[in-house]
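A.,

Following up on our hallway conversation. C-alpha cells first:
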C-alpha cells in the first residue's frame, strides 16, 4: 500500500506553555507527525493526540537558540481530535500537524536534523525502505518569503511563512539520503526530518490447478 498525504493543520501559537489545536485524521494505516518550535529551554513535558502520548522523533537547537521538535504517533484515532503540546514553563510554542495513510504501523524508520546560519535551511534523512516518504519541519527565525527546494512540498505555514511543515510529495523509490529544504533571506534556522515506511504489500500466492 502506498503512502498518501492526508491532512495538514497550522496549530497557531501560544505563550502560556501549552498549545492545543484540533487535527483530523482519516483513512487506514495512519501516522501523524507534530512539528513545533519551542523556546530557548528544552522543557517539553508531553505531546498528545486524542489524549495518547506521542513519541519524540528528533529535536535540534536552532541557530537562533530555539528548539525545533518533531513528534510522531502510529495509528492515531480517526476524526477531529486535539493535539496538546505542554512545557514546564510559560514558553511560546508554535506548531502544527501532518497526517498520512498507507504507513507501516511502526515508529518512523529514521531521522535527521540540521541547524545553521545560511539562507538555505535544509536537513536530510537516509530512507531505509523503498517508497518511503520524507516528512519534517523547516524553521527560520525571521518572517521572510520562502521558496521550496526541488523535491520539497510545503504542506503548512506555522503562523508565519518562515516556519513550514513539509514532505517529499512523492515516494523515494530507492533508499537514499534525501533532503527537505527551502531558501529565504534570513540566516538562522533549524530543521528536523524523518522517513516513513509504506505498509508492506500483502502477498497472495496463486493456486496452481492441475
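Then the amino acids I'd put at each of the 210 positions:
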Amino acid at each position: 500500500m502506498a503512502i498518501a498525504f492526508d491532512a495538514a493543520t497550522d496549530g497557531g501559537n501560544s505563550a502560556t506553555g501549552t498549545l492545543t489545536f484540533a487535527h483530523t485524521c482519516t483513512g487506514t494505516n495512519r501516522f501523524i507527525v507534530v512539528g513545533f518550535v519551542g523556546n530557548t529551554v528544552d522543557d517539553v513535558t508531553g505531546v498528545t493526540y486524542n489524549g495518547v502520548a506521542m513519541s519524540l522523533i528528533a529535536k535540534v537547537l536552532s541557530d537562533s537558540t530555539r528548539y525545533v521538535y518533531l513528534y510522531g504517533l502510529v495509528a492515531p484515532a480517526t476524526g477531529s481530535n486535539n493535539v496538546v503540546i505542554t512545557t514546564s514553563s510559560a514558553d511560546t510554542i508554535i506548531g502544527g500537524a501532518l497526517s498520512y495513510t498507507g504507513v507501516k504501523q511502526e515508529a518512523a524508520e529514521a531521522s535527521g536534523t540540521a541547524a545553521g546560519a545560511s539562507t538555505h535551511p535544509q536537513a536530510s534523512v537516509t530512507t531505509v525502505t523503498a517508497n518511503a516518504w520524507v516528512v519534517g519541519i523547516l524553521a527560520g527565525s525571521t518572517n521572510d518569503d520562502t521558496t521550496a527546494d526541488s523535491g520539497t512540498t510545503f504542506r503548512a505555514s506555522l503562523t508565519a511563512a518562515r516556519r513550514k511543515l513539509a514532505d517529499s510529495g512523492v515516494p523515494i523509490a530507492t533508499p537514499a539520503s534525501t533532503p527537505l529544504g527551502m531558501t529565504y533571506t534570513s540566516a538562522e534556522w533549524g530543521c528536523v526530518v524523518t522517513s516513513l515506511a509504506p505498509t508492506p504489500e500483502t502477498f497472495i500466492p496463486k493456486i496452481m490447478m492441475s
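The chain is about 0% helix and 55% strand. Curious whether your intuition agrees with the design.

B.
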